[in-house]
Specification:
Shape: globular
CATH class of the largest domain: Alpha Beta
Strand order of the largest sheet: 3-2-4-1-5-6
CATH topology of the largest domain: Rossmann fold
Helix content: 40-55%
Oligomer: single chain
Number of domains: 2
Order of helices and strands: EHEEHEHHHHHHEHHHHHEH
Structural class: alpha/beta
Distance between the termini: 18 Å
Largest sheet: 6 strands, parallel
Number of strands: 6
CATH architecture of the largest domain: 3-Layer(aba) Sandwich
């Protein structure tokens, strides 16, 4: 059985995963897009290397922050990891909040071969012109994207140039699980409690040295666009560049994290068949105790 523990950031997924790991004698596969990066620890709330459960985790600290990382790469690594772990374990725990990574990995999600497509001409276009181009190439995809979501608009154009539009690619898939035994469990706390947890979590990150962690990363690496996209890191970088005060930086991280948590909840509810619990205790009482 593959138990997939999902939920918004700050909902307590890691602690649940630990208890599931003990109870089912199972390894844990990380499904957080930024915990795959080495030295990005405080801002991602990554489990400490001193924690005995760290050694039970897979797909943690596997990439340099200088490297970009994609859903397609994660999918391949996830499936390879599951294949190897199934030879030794009856149960596997997956834990994380990056819904697209999880969906791409456990469903029949395929990618167009777009790596070799030249995008130099697209980089020169503003958002409006990019969006107009997408409407010509793939109107269905354009209807689902906002004009200012430059990254996704550009990717949809690139996919179309690879020979099959994004919409055609999605519609050709059966959206079926590729694993027989999967149980998706979602922790969805009361919003007021969740937001309070997020605010306290951000304060704790600064107390633990988030600013110094970012300074160290900037000295050690040329951060990739993927790594710099992590909430908490991009805001601290802007603070270090003098764009706003430390207090404003903290408040911005809290706000963006709360907004991200809201989007996570929406994604999980809409994209997965899952069992939902408001508290960690409810989940534990049903599956462990």
């Amino acid at each position: 059985m593959i138990y997939i523990i999902v939920g918004p950031t700050g909902s307590g997924k890691t602690e649940i995963a630990k208890q599931f790991s003990d109870y089912f004698s199972a390894p844990i596969i990380n499904a957080d897009a930024f915990q795959i990066y080495r030295d990005m620890n405080i801002g991602t709330a990554k489990i400490s290397k001193d924690d005995p459960y760290y050694k039970k985790h897979y797909l943690l600290d596997i990439k340099s922050p200088s490297d970009n990382f994609s859903v397609k790469e994660y999918q391949a690594l996830f499936r390879e990891t599951v294949e190897q772990l199934e030879k030794k374990y009856q149960n596997i725990i997956v834990c994380g909040g990056t819904g697209l990574y999880i969906r791409a990995s456990i469903y029949d999600y395929t990618f167009n071969d777009e790596e070799e497509i030249d995008t130099s001409d697209l980089e020169k276009l503003d958002n409006e012109k990019l969006y107009e181009l997408l409407k010509k190439l793939d109107p269905e995809a354009a209807d689902k994207l906002h004009m200012n979501n430059r990254k996704r608009v550009m990717r949809a154009i690139v996919i179309s140039r690879s020979g099959t539009s994004k919409s055609e690619n999605i519609n050709s898939q059966e959206h079926k699980l590729i694993y027989e035994d999967v149980q998706i469990l979602m922790i969805n706390p009361n919003r007021e409690k969740l937001y309070d947890s997020i605010n306290k979590r951000v304060d704790k990150m600064f107390e633990e040295g988030l600013v110094n962690e970012v300074k160290s990363l900037l000295k050690k690496y040329e951060l990739s666009t993927t790594a710099k996209a992590a909430i908490g890191y991009k805001e601290v970088i802007d603070y270090l560049e003098g764009k706003y005060s430390l207090d404003d930086c903290k408040e911005l991280i809290k706000k963006r994290t709360r907004n991200y948590a809201k989007r996570q909840v929406t994604f999980f509810k809409n994209q997965f068949e899952l069992e939902m619990f408001e508290t960690n205790q409810q989940l534990l009482d049903k599956y462990i105790r």
